[in-house]
Amino acid sequence: MLTFDVLVIGSGGAGMRAALEAVRQQGLSVGLMTKMFPTRSATGCAQGGINGSLKNADPNDSIEKHIFDTVKGSDYLGDQDAIEYFIASLPDAIRELDYLGVPFSRDSEGRIAQRNFGGASSPRTCFSADVTGHVILHALYEQCLKHGVTVLAEWYLLQIVTDKGKLCGVVAYDMKGGRIVPVAAKAIVVATGGAGRMYWLRTTNPFTSTGDGIAACLEAGIPVKDPEFVQFHPTGLAGTGILMSEASRGEGGYLLNNQGERFMSRYAPEKMELATRDLVSQAIETEIKEGRGFGEGLQAYVELDLRHLGQEKIMERLPQIRELAITFEQVDPIHQPIPIRPSCHYSMGGIDVIDYRTCATAVEGVFAAGEAACISIHGANRLGGNSLADIVAFGKFAGQGAANCAARRQAVNTEAALQAATAWEARFETVTNRSTGVTVNSVRDRLAEIMWNNVGVFRTAAEMEAALTVVDSLLQEYQTVMVPDKNKLYNTAFVNYIELGSMLTVAKTVVLGALNRKESRGSHCRADFPNRDDANFLKHTLVSKEGQAYNIAYRPVVITNYPPAERKY
């Protein structure tokens, strides 16, 4: 049995920032468990930048303006005390990244450059060309190695083990070693990212974004908060869903319909293409639905036009955008518009964090950060640039919280983790010895189809009730899935089976939350309830699980200085 004081699960920006903070505290043993090589996580897909009020591009910007933009962007569902704590920490967090070696782009005076992003009242998004997440990952990984974090690469979380409401450890599958392993830990940080792959047909997320940590926490008795709020990024490539960063619009790109119109003038006449992501995605889908898009069906699209920016600016500020467009759409944005359509991008909901200062959850010893967590700072819609900000700020807070918890706790119940590992050994034998049953691909593809078609940018009760029926049926079918590989060494079929179970579990929380929220707010847009309803739904959804039963409860939103008002952009 492996033993750590602090075990961080997930090697994106939040996970590595948590591990780095924990290993700096009190000489604790810190492990970093990751499904992949640490620098290959979804954080690398975050191209555009990280928000912070440095005032480099606008001396009139302020912490208060950033707070208000975030509250307004959240459609007033964000907890304002948590948002205030978050935003106030960001200037120092960005300076720390600078000191750690992140190569930020610079302005003419050598200061960190800042660009416009959607929903922002000032240009406050710091960036490194259009590869910001990638360079942050590499800087954090170097620091984790320097400070002695133990990296467990190609390890898959199977279960979070608890005893009497307290953490004992986890059970994991060591793919490279071909074994199921109990790991004892006094504290863990769950930083496993989102679950965008349940929208398999159109998502910006990598194949590893399957909601493993969210599902494991739900099974361990920790609720999922606000799962219905799924962000669809306006500009995914039409054919693949691959992200075309918001930086492309921040630098001045236009969105055009088949009549050559900059159609955002109909939906957000002041902010135009730099309105919030929920509004821009809904506008694009409306243009397509009303016949002003190009193409038909799932392949329908509008155009992202960068040609007027000129070759020099595109090559300097948006080199990866150009490379991706050429590689996957055979379109050079210097000369041609890019075909785009909204694509599933981000989970505003996630593991219910009950203390934003430490990222603690309801189970002693379990902390959560990054996209896997719901600290309630993004509410119903996340602003672009606030995600990289989220992971470095709350990654640090989670690392501190977990380290302090581990220093306080005595020895954990290792027997519970051993027993759980034995149960997983039996489950492995069961699923790999089935000679008949359904395949992972069959269930996964039907899940993706129903989620995109029925729980997408626009939703209705009838569509979501049909989706709930399908998801329930797929959960039943999952019990008969066969894994056609009995070898424990690099058994990717077993990994796919585990990931499918996680996606199904998270998908059910999304559908339940959306079906019961009878209003439109942020990314949750219901055609049958088109208006926001503060009287009845200015509250957080909490989905919990007991056995096979899913239960819904609610919690009030924390309002401090900004009472709900109409959003206009």
TrEMBL record:
It is found in: Membrane. Its EC number is 1.-.-.-. Residues 444-569 form the Fumarate reductase/succinate dehydrogenase flavoprotein-like C-terminal domain. The active site is at R277 (proton acceptor). It is an enzyme of class 1 (oxidoreductase). GO terms for cellular component: plasma membrane. It is a peripheral membrane protein. Pfam families: FAD_binding_2 (PF00890), Succ_DH_flav_C (PF02910). It comes from the Bacteria. Belongs to the FAD-dependent oxidoreductase 2 family. FRD/SDH subfamily. This is Succinate dehydrogenase, flavoprotein subunit. The lineage of its organism: Bacteria, Bacillati, Bacillota, Negativicutes, Selenomonadales.
